[in-house]
Protein backbone atom coordinates (compact mmCIF):
# COMPACT_ATOMS: atom_id res chain seq x y z
CA UNK A 1 0.00 0.00 0.00
CA UNK A 2 1.40 3.39 -1.00
CA UNK A 3 1.69 6.39 1.31
CA UNK A 4 -0.87 8.19 -0.87
CA UNK A 5 -3.35 5.39 -0.30
CA UNK A 6 -2.72 5.39 3.45
CA UNK A 7 -3.36 9.13 3.58
CA UNK A 8 -6.35 9.33 1.21
CA UNK A 9 -7.96 5.88 1.28
CA UNK A 10 -7.47 5.37 -2.46
CA UNK A 11 -4.62 5.15 -4.95
CA UNK A 12 -3.40 8.16 -6.91
CA UNK A 13 -4.99 6.73 -10.04
CA UNK A 14 -8.34 6.16 -8.32
CA UNK A 15 -8.27 9.76 -7.13
CA UNK A 16 -7.44 10.97 -10.64
CA UNK A 17 -10.35 8.93 -12.04
CA UNK A 18 -12.74 10.73 -9.68
CA UNK A 19 -11.42 14.18 -10.57
CA UNK A 20 -8.34 14.33 -12.75
CA UNK A 21 -8.62 17.97 -13.82
CA UNK A 22 -5.58 19.20 -11.89
CA UNK A 23 -3.51 16.08 -12.62
CA UNK A 24 -4.18 16.15 -16.37
CA UNK A 25 -3.46 19.88 -16.56
CA UNK A 26 -0.17 19.39 -14.71
CA UNK A 27 0.92 16.57 -16.99
CA UNK A 28 0.03 18.59 -20.09
CA UNK A 29 2.04 21.57 -18.80
CA UNK A 30 5.03 19.32 -18.11
CA UNK A 31 4.78 17.82 -21.60
CA UNK A 32 4.67 21.20 -23.31
CA UNK A 33 7.79 22.35 -21.45
CA UNK A 34 9.68 19.05 -21.63
CA UNK A 35 9.00 18.23 -25.28
CA UNK A 36 10.07 21.67 -26.49
CA UNK A 37 13.48 21.10 -24.94
CA UNK A 38 13.76 17.42 -25.87
CA UNK A 39 12.96 18.08 -29.51
CA UNK A 40 15.65 20.76 -29.61
CA UNK A 41 18.25 18.55 -27.91
CA UNK A 42 17.33 15.11 -29.20
CA UNK A 43 15.02 15.60 -32.15
CA UNK A 44 16.98 13.04 -34.16
CA UNK A 45 15.42 10.28 -32.02
CA UNK A 46 12.01 11.08 -33.49
CA UNK A 47 13.30 11.70 -37.02
CA UNK A 48 13.83 7.95 -37.35
CA UNK A 49 10.14 7.19 -36.75
CA UNK A 50 8.89 5.98 -40.11
CA UNK A 51 5.18 6.64 -40.13
CA UNK A 52 3.30 6.18 -36.87
CA UNK A 53 3.74 6.66 -33.15
CA UNK A 54 1.51 5.87 -30.19
CA UNK A 55 1.93 7.85 -26.98
CA UNK A 56 1.07 5.39 -24.21
CA UNK A 57 -0.41 7.02 -21.13
CA UNK A 58 -0.32 10.26 -23.09
CA UNK A 59 -3.14 12.02 -21.26
CA UNK A 60 -4.51 14.92 -23.27
CA UNK A 61 -1.88 14.59 -25.98
CA UNK A 62 0.51 17.49 -25.33
CA UNK A 63 3.62 15.40 -25.99
CA UNK A 64 2.17 13.75 -29.10
CA UNK A 65 1.00 17.13 -30.40
CA UNK A 66 4.54 18.52 -30.10
CA UNK A 67 5.90 15.56 -32.08
CA UNK A 68 3.18 15.90 -34.73
CA UNK A 69 4.00 19.58 -35.21
CA UNK A 70 7.75 18.94 -35.47
CA UNK A 71 7.39 15.87 -37.72
CA UNK A 72 4.21 16.21 -39.81
CA UNK A 73 4.84 12.85 -41.55
CA UNK A 74 4.34 10.98 -38.25
CA UNK A 75 0.78 9.87 -37.53
CA UNK A 76 0.36 10.23 -33.76
CA UNK A 77 -2.08 8.30 -31.59
CA UNK A 78 -2.64 8.84 -27.86
CA UNK A 79 -3.60 5.88 -25.68
CA UNK A 80 -4.99 6.49 -22.22
CA UNK A 81 -7.86 5.33 -20.04
CA UNK A 82 -11.33 6.05 -21.50
CA UNK A 83 -12.24 8.66 -18.87
CA UNK A 84 -9.01 10.54 -19.65
CA UNK A 85 -9.35 10.69 -23.44
CA UNK A 86 -13.05 11.54 -23.07
CA UNK A 87 -12.07 14.98 -21.78
CA UNK A 88 -9.12 15.56 -24.14
CA UNK A 89 -9.27 18.66 -26.34
CA UNK A 90 -9.96 18.16 -30.02
CA UNK A 91 -6.85 18.05 -32.18
CA UNK A 92 -7.06 17.14 -35.85
CA UNK A 93 -3.41 16.04 -35.82
CA UNK A 94 -4.02 13.37 -33.15
CA UNK A 95 -6.11 10.23 -32.76
CA UNK A 96 -7.24 9.40 -29.22
CA UNK A 97 -7.86 5.80 -28.19
CA UNK A 98 -9.39 4.76 -24.88
CA UNK A 99 -7.84 1.62 -23.44
CA UNK A 100 -5.59 0.04 -20.85
CA UNK A 101 -1.84 -0.17 -21.52
CA UNK A 102 -1.69 -3.36 -19.46
CA UNK A 103 -4.04 -5.07 -21.92
CA UNK A 104 -3.22 -3.72 -25.37
CA UNK A 105 -1.20 -1.05 -27.16
CA UNK A 106 -2.29 -0.02 -30.69
CA UNK A 107 0.20 -1.07 -33.41
CA UNK A 108 2.66 1.58 -34.53
CA UNK A 109 6.22 2.00 -35.79
CA UNK A 110 7.20 3.54 -32.45
CA UNK A 111 5.81 3.72 -28.94
CA UNK A 112 6.42 6.67 -26.61
CA UNK A 113 6.35 6.34 -22.81
CA UNK A 114 6.94 9.78 -21.34
CA UNK A 115 7.18 9.83 -17.56
CA UNK A 116 5.04 6.70 -17.25
CA UNK A 117 7.20 3.84 -16.04
CA UNK A 118 8.52 5.61 -12.95
CA UNK A 119 4.94 5.46 -11.63
CA UNK A 120 5.03 1.65 -11.50
CA UNK A 121 6.87 -1.14 -9.76
CA UNK A 122 9.16 -3.58 -11.59
CA UNK A 123 6.59 -6.25 -12.47
CA UNK A 124 4.12 -3.71 -13.84
CA UNK A 125 6.81 -2.08 -16.00
CA UNK A 126 7.62 -5.47 -17.51
CA UNK A 127 3.94 -6.02 -18.35
CA UNK A 128 3.60 -2.61 -19.97
CA UNK A 129 6.74 -3.04 -22.06
CA UNK A 130 5.65 -6.49 -23.24
CA UNK A 131 2.47 -4.90 -24.62
CA UNK A 132 4.61 -2.21 -26.27
CA UNK A 133 6.87 -4.83 -27.83
CA UNK A 134 3.84 -6.59 -29.29
CA UNK A 135 2.73 -3.30 -30.88
CA UNK A 136 5.91 -2.47 -32.84
CA UNK A 137 7.60 -4.14 -35.82
CA UNK A 138 11.05 -5.73 -35.71
CA UNK A 139 14.12 -3.54 -35.26
CA UNK A 140 15.31 -4.04 -38.84
CA UNK A 141 12.14 -2.33 -40.08
CA UNK A 142 12.27 0.52 -37.61
CA UNK A 143 10.45 -0.72 -34.51
CA UNK A 144 11.40 1.13 -31.33
CA UNK A 145 10.11 2.12 -27.91
CA UNK A 146 11.10 5.62 -26.80
CA UNK A 147 11.14 6.15 -23.04
CA UNK A 148 11.45 9.58 -21.46
CA UNK A 149 12.26 9.06 -17.80
CA UNK A 150 14.93 9.50 -15.15
CA UNK A 151 18.02 7.30 -15.19
CA UNK A 152 19.70 8.01 -11.88
CA UNK A 153 23.35 8.94 -12.37
CA UNK A 154 23.18 8.89 -16.17
CA UNK A 155 24.92 12.26 -16.44
CA UNK A 156 27.98 10.81 -14.68
CA UNK A 157 30.73 13.19 -13.65
CA UNK A 158 28.99 16.13 -15.33
CA UNK A 159 26.15 15.90 -12.84
CA UNK A 160 26.27 18.59 -10.14
CA UNK A 161 25.35 18.16 -6.50
CA UNK A 162 22.02 19.96 -7.01
CA UNK A 163 21.02 17.45 -9.70
CA UNK A 164 22.03 14.51 -7.54
CA UNK A 165 20.04 15.82 -4.58
CA UNK A 166 17.03 16.45 -6.81
CA UNK A 167 17.14 12.86 -8.09
CA UNK A 168 17.15 11.52 -4.54
CA UNK A 169 14.35 13.81 -3.40
CA UNK A 170 12.24 12.94 -6.43
CA UNK A 171 12.73 9.24 -5.71
CA UNK A 172 11.37 9.83 -2.20
CA UNK A 173 8.47 11.79 -3.68
CA UNK A 174 7.62 8.96 -6.09
CA UNK A 175 7.45 6.49 -3.21
CA UNK A 176 4.33 8.30 -2.03
CA UNK A 177 2.49 7.00 -5.09
CA UNK A 178 4.26 3.60 -5.09
CA UNK A 179 6.58 4.68 -7.90
CA UNK A 180 10.37 4.53 -8.13
CA UNK A 181 13.25 6.23 -9.91
CA UNK A 182 15.84 3.80 -11.31
CA UNK A 183 19.52 3.42 -12.05
CA UNK A 184 20.61 1.93 -15.38
CA UNK A 185 21.05 -1.62 -14.03
CA UNK A 186 17.45 -1.57 -12.77
CA UNK A 187 16.15 -0.39 -16.13
CA UNK A 188 18.25 -3.00 -17.92
CA UNK A 189 16.71 -5.83 -15.91
CA UNK A 190 13.21 -4.65 -16.82
CA UNK A 191 14.09 -4.44 -20.51
CA UNK A 192 15.54 -7.96 -20.59
CA UNK A 193 12.54 -9.45 -18.79
CA UNK A 194 10.19 -7.71 -21.22
CA UNK A 195 11.98 -9.36 -24.17
CA UNK A 196 14.04 -6.49 -25.59
CA UNK A 197 17.55 -7.08 -26.89
CA UNK A 198 19.23 -3.67 -26.83
CA UNK A 199 18.84 -0.08 -25.66
CA UNK A 200 20.52 3.31 -25.86
CA UNK A 201 20.43 6.02 -23.17
CA UNK A 202 20.85 9.67 -24.10
CA UNK A 203 21.07 12.05 -21.10
CA UNK A 204 19.50 15.49 -21.56
CA UNK A 205 20.21 18.83 -19.95
CA UNK A 206 17.47 18.14 -17.42
CA UNK A 207 17.02 15.24 -15.02
CA UNK A 208 15.34 13.00 -17.56
CA UNK A 209 16.95 10.87 -20.24
CA UNK A 210 15.74 9.42 -23.51
CA UNK A 211 15.98 5.64 -23.72
CA UNK A 212 15.64 4.04 -27.15
CA UNK A 213 14.58 0.45 -26.67
CA UNK A 214 14.86 -2.12 -29.46
CA UNK A 215 13.10 -5.48 -29.93
Automatic annotation (TrEMBL):
Residues 3-196 form the O-methyltransferase C-terminal domain. The keyword S-adenosyl-L-methionine applies. Keywords: Methyltransferase, S-adenosyl-L-methionine, Transferase. PROSITE patterns: SAM_OMT_II (PS51683). The keyword Chaperone does not apply. InterPro entries: COMT-like, COMT_C, SAM-dependent_MTases_sf. GO terms for biological process: methylation. It comes from the Eukaryota. GO terms for molecular function: O-methyltransferase activity; S-adenosylmethionine-dependent methyltransferase activity. Pfam families: Methyltransf_2 (PF00891). This is O-methyltransferase C-terminal domain-containing protein. PANTHER family: O-METHYLTRANSFERASE.
Amino acid sequence: MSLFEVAHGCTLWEAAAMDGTAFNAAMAADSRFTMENLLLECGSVFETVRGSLVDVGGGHGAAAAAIARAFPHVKCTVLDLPHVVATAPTDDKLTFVGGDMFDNVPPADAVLLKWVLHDWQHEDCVKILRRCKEAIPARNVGGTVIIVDTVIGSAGSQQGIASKETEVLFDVFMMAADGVEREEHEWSKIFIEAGFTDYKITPTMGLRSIIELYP
